[in-house]
Amino acid sequence: MTLTPTPGTDAPEPDAPTWPAEFAERYRAAGHWRGETFGSVLAERAAAHPDRIAVVDPAPERRTWTYRELEERSARLAAGFAARGISKGDRVVLQLPNVGEFVEVAFALFRLGALPVYALPAHRETEIAYFCSFTEAVAYVIPDRHAGFDHRDLASKVKADTPTLRHVFVVGDPGEHTPLSDVPREADGLPEGPAPDDLAFLQLSGGTTGVPKLIPRTHDDYIYSLRGSDEICGVDADTRYLVVLPAAHNFPMSSPGWLGTLYAGGTVVLCPRPDAATAFPLVAAERVTMTGMVPPLALLWTQAAEDTEHDLSSLRLVLVGGAKYSEAAARRLEPALGCRLMQVFGMAEGLVNYTRLDDDDETVVTTQGLPISPDDEIRVVDDADQEVPDGAYGHLLTRGPYTIRGYWRAPEHNARSFTSDGFYRTGDIVRRTPTGHLVVEGRAKDQINRGGEKIAPEEIENIILSHPSVHDVSLVGVADEYLGERSLAYVILREGAEPLKAPAVRRLVRERGVAAYKVPDLVEFVDAFPQTGIGKVSKKGLRSDAAPGPAAPLQH
Ligand code: OOB
Question: Which stretches of 11-144 are assigned E, i.e. beta strand?
Fold first, then answer.
């Protein structure tokens, strides 16, 4: 893997900072990092229980793959990718919805040591072009069409502009690209796989800046988070986990998610859409035992469960996280769905907290849980990085055996997002209860959390600012009963400029080709922004102008 160069030598800049040797040794000695890779884990599971069902893809026709089949398919695909010139360390942007091929391609890339870059199905040209060019991706894997959108046209445009991008592989009708099914399924020719401390993939950060940051996760660190999550959530060979959120997101991937389920030898059921009308019949037919979702979806499921005809009695545990889950909503989930609730407060950068199966009900509905690991170090600090007394609110800083030490190729940003001793500045405002459970009170980072989907205001502000009539813009989150927050763009027009209407602002953002969830929900024209004491735009002031008050205070 890339090592931190010794000062004074000409070693190349590492792609990302990694754990100092003494930490790595400690995490190995504690048994957290066990020298496994995703490839070795799948091979072991396939040898131990070849005929167990690993993956169920219900649509459009029910397909199942046993562990042996998944292992063979992904190993052969890995050899086929290798024959096409894809090798260890290469980046491959993976943008597939919840279909079996997602799992197959991910494991093929893991086996090769090529790094999936996990795009969300909602991402559009702006994001994809950035991921491809910034990571110098050699391949891009897409569905033909998904949710009414033709990914092949987008791929053609991106390929024309990205010199490194040699392959576009399509699941379905390929158009002018290569069908994934045409990649030769070689029986041999597999090069040596990655080492356990090599990078396994690049995950996307929610982001606070103009462009998303990439999160480098290793086999060792991520597999440790799977093992810990499995233990906490009681995942075992009988678990049948339904992937309702996009499989590319860290939550349904590893908390405990589809990777945690496969680690334990359970069955992953892929859900093509998250709505109750799609998911409930699948829960019943596949005897689903566990799933994870964001708060707005949990609200919908809770309501829909009241008069459903579908048998949900197989459900044992529903995890809810990604955004603050209101206590009132949390209280309704268990009676409605007839299963245990667990809150999850996690981040793609690493740290994941869960309430525990044996926590009392009050703790489950009022807190966001405890860290996975005894070696997760938690600091709650004031603005000067001084620890606050237990129970007081402060900024959450963390470091540990599965929390990154820096983003990928982002040294300047890393200097701001990490302390000099390697703690990640989460941007979240929390307090700790006497039992050590964390309660998320709000956020200090400039980010909007729209029902679990994260928006970096700067990215959208830059697009709106490019309009000649716009003098200035500020995007803020305002309270929303269902989503927790939605986005509001305050726009100041240039004097004497062509007048602009709200729909045109929204259209400008949409037509720039960004994920639909980033298009401002509301647009308001103002003459001036409220200022803070030092003359900076006060986002807090804007938020309180907009609404009687956000669901939770967003700044302390
Ligand atoms: C998950 O990961 P990301 O990377 O999309 O977002 C992380 C951020 C956190 O820093 C926090 O601001 C917010 O999302 N968040 C929550 C929360 N869970 C995440 N805020 C309040 N309450 C919660 N329960 O969102 C993610 C990753 C793994 C597991 C679960 C969620």
Answer: 53-57, 63-66, 91-94, 115-118, 139-143
Task: Kindly state the tokens that stand for 132.
Answer: 């491809």
Cα 27 from Cα 442, distance rounded (Å)? 31
Going from the Cα of 347 to the center of ligand 1, the distance in angstroms, rounded, reads 5
Domains and CATH numbers, the chain: 36-235+251-260 (3.40.50.980), 448-545 (3.30.300.30)
Which amino acid, one-letter code, is at 85? G
- Counting ligand 1 atoms within 8 A of each CB, the residue from 345, 352, 367 with the most, and so the one to mutate, is 345
Report how far ligand 1's centroid is from the alpha carbon of 5 (Å). Answer: 32
Q: Mind giving me the DSSP string for 356-415?
A: -TTS-HHHHHH---EES-TT-EEEEE-TTSPBPPTTS-EEEEEE-TTS-SS-TT-HHHHH
Copy the structure tokens of residue 182.
């045409």
What residues contact residue 478 under an 8 Å CB cut-off, 6+ apart? 485, 486, 487, 488, 522, 543, 546, 547, 550
pLDDT tens column, 367-380: 999 999 999 999 99
pLDDT tens by residue, 294-337: 999 999 999 999 999 999 999 999 999 999 999 999 999 999 99
How many C-beta atoms lie closer than 10 Å to residue 386's C-beta? 9
Joined tokens for residue 16: 């990302």
Q: Check residue 196 and give its pLDDT.
A: 98
pTM assigned to the model: 0.95
Q: Find all residues with CB under 8 Å of 307, minimum gap 6, and list them.
A: none
Alpha helix ranges (H) inside 255-397: 257-263, 276-286, 295-305, 327-337, 361-366
Indicate which residue's Cα is closest to atom 5 of ligand 1. Answer: 206
As for ligand 1, residues whose beta carbon falls within 6 Å of it are 206, 250-251, 255, 321-324, 343-348, 352, 368, 426, 428, 440, 443, 449, 452, 454
Q: Which residues contact 411 (CB under 8 A, 6 or more apart)?
A: 13
436 Cα to the center of ligand 1, angstroms: 18
Annotate 138-183 with DSSP letters as a single string: SEEEEESEETTEEHHHHHHHHHHH-TT--EEEEES--TTSEEGGGS
Instruction: Quote the pLDDT of residue 476.
Output: 96
Structure tokens that stand for 373 in this block: 């690991």
Helix (H) or strand (E) holding 450: strand 448-450
Beta strands at 438-443 and 448-450: parallel, antiparallel or unpaired? unpaired
Spatial CA neighbour of 94 closest among 76, 115, 73: 115
Residue 547 binned pLDDT confidence (cut-offs 50, 70, 90):
low
In the chain, the largest separation of any two C-alpha atoms, in whole Å, equals 73
Please say whether the beta carbons of 243 and 272 come within 8 A. no
With a cut of 60, say whether residue 20 has pLDDT above it: yes
